[in-house]
Amino acid sequence: MLSASDLFDLSQTEHAELFNGIRHPWEALQKLADYIDANVHPVLKNRCEGVAYIGEKVFIGEGTVVEDGAMIKGPAIIGRNCRIRHNAYIREHVIVGDNCVVGNACELKHSILFNGAQVPHFNYVGDSILGHRAHLGAGVILSNFRSLPGSIHVEIDGVRYDTGLRKLGALLGDHCEIGCQAVLNPGSIVGRRSVVYPGVNWRGYLPADRIAKNRAAVEVVERRREDG
Fold it and tell me: Domains in the chain, please, with CATH?
């Protein structure tokens, strides 16, 4: 059995209540919308650099900077000392912890970022949880919707679980690193401190302290000079 505390340091979020009374870590996402709707108290303590759109049901903490062109629809709760960069798109029901980065042209939807998580360049994060200081390389996609009908299943240590969710992205443990242009398929789980190398198409459960490498062969051939 994989618990939320196996993946996440729950002291690194002000919203640990989401994980109370659940058996599986993805169940926190089932509670997320109701939790935010009940707990968001719209106050903007941030500083804007340029012009940004911020919806009515948004809380943003002190020291956070929202750059020009960002759109925060809400409901959303964003912590202190974050950087919401140019053209970031934060959709409905998102929690962003303290000291996080949401970068240029990144899209977040129905997700939780623990303190220090970084989503810095051209990333999609849907129906996902990113642990303390988890980091996405440029262009990483956390795919959240399976092409075939039915709910998303995850397999952990040979046991298959039906999450009951039609949409589920990735659960990324504390301090994990996802390399540039990697794609994590729906229901992927990456353990603490594990690494997924750039360009890997990952599916399933990667335990803690592991590295997922792409062993695809690279062919090197001689370059032929053009005549003349």
Answer: 4-212 (2.160.10.10)
